[in-house]
Amino acid sequence: MIILQRGKFITFEGIDGAGKSTHLAWLASFLRDKGLEVIVTREPGSTALGEQLRQLLLDHRQAMHAETETLLMFAARREHLDKVILPALERGAWVISDRFTDASFAYQGGGRGVPSARLEILEQWVQKGFSPDLTVYFDVPVTISRQRVQSARTADRFELEPDLFFERVRQAYLQRAKQFSERIRVVDGSLSLEEVRTAMVEVVEKFWSAQASSGYRM
Ligand SMILES: Nc1ncnc2c1ncn2[C@@H]1O[C@H](COP(=O)(O)OP(=O)(O)O)[C@@H](O)[C@H]1O
Ligand SMILES: Cc1cn([C@H]2C[C@H](O)[C@@H](COP(=O)(O)OP(=O)(O)O)O2)c(=O)[nH]c1=O
Questions:
Q1: Fold designation for 9-213
Q2: Residue from 16, 24, 148, 187 whose mutation best tests the ligand 1 pocket (most atoms within 8 A of CB)
Q3: What is the rounded distance in angstroms from the CA atom of residue 74 to the CA atom of residue 85?
């Protein structure tokens, strides 16, 4: 009898320009080299409906109430869980997502001031106790992330927010990293690309060894 083990769910977090997307591809190939099926995905988005919600959420002409924004983020997440994340984990694949619920606590909570208690209700409603197995948080000062984003792409609705908004987002991430220190690993994203990658590899290799020693069959 073949007993299929559930895959692992890894998320990347950080303020815009922290370097998440740059390092995601590396992690995917690291895990694929170990023989795993790996799904790379992102939030908001990654389903047909989720990508439409993403367009509404990121379009700078689309002003919206902070609670509308929050509900749309969780609506996109519900689809993402149902159509992509949970089926992949159940068939044994590993899933790496560029952002997940920590982003709602950081952006809608820290950035927009939506009370954590409300976010926790939505989290419980949508996730029913499900959360990532590992989160890598790339921490960068706002000035650095701004410079990177400005030279890399056209700003979306969030990236047009002032520095103060991103300071609050960053503080909320740091606070959450303290609160969930077992799950959320902080990497200094302000270093050179090579140095950040080395720090990330260390985090991922530790996680990998912990899985192996706890009996996870690779
Ligand atoms: N450690 C780094 N040093 C210098 N530039 C970086 C570093 N990390 C990312 N970048 C650059 O910053 C820009 C934004 O990076 P990206 O990975 O898209 O960030 P995010 O996905 O977190 O928004 C890209 O042009 C990328 O090449
Ligand atoms: C998932 C999520 C993203 N966001 C925001 C953060 C980003 O500014 C934006 C899109 O995410 P993303 O594509 O990761 O942006 P970037 O590549 O610039 O880091 O959506 C929230 O505000 N709340 C959420 O729950």
A1: Rossmann fold (3.40.50)
A2: 148
A3: 14
Q: What angle separates helix 142-152 from helix 163-179, to the nearest 10 degrees?
A: 120
Distance CA(184)–CA(102), nearest Å, equals: 10
Residues of the chain with pLDDT under 70: 1-4, 217-218
Three state DSSP letters for 145-206: HHHHHHHHCCCCCCCCCCHHHHHHHHHHHHHHHHHCCCCEEEEECCCCHHHHHHHHHHHHHH
What is the C-alpha to C-alpha distance for residues 53 and 74, in angstroms, rounded to an integer? 10
Cα of 103 vs centre of ligand 2, distance in Å, is 7
**54 C-beta closer than 6 A to ligand 2:** no
Judged by DSSP in three states, 23 sits in helix
The atom of ligand 2 lying closest to the CA of 149 is 18
pLDDT of residue 212: 81
Determine whether the shortest distance from the Cβ of 21 to ligand 2 is under 6 A: yes
pLDDT at position 151 = 84
pTM of the model: 0.96
Instruction: Tell me the three state secondary structure of residue 215.
Output: coil
The predicted pLDDT at position 184 comes to: 98
Half-sphere exposure of 10 (CA within 13 A, CB side): 27
Q: Which residues of 59-85 are buried (b: 16+ CB within 10 A; e: fewer)?
A: eeeeeeeeeebbebbbbbbbbbbeebb
DSSP state of 31: H
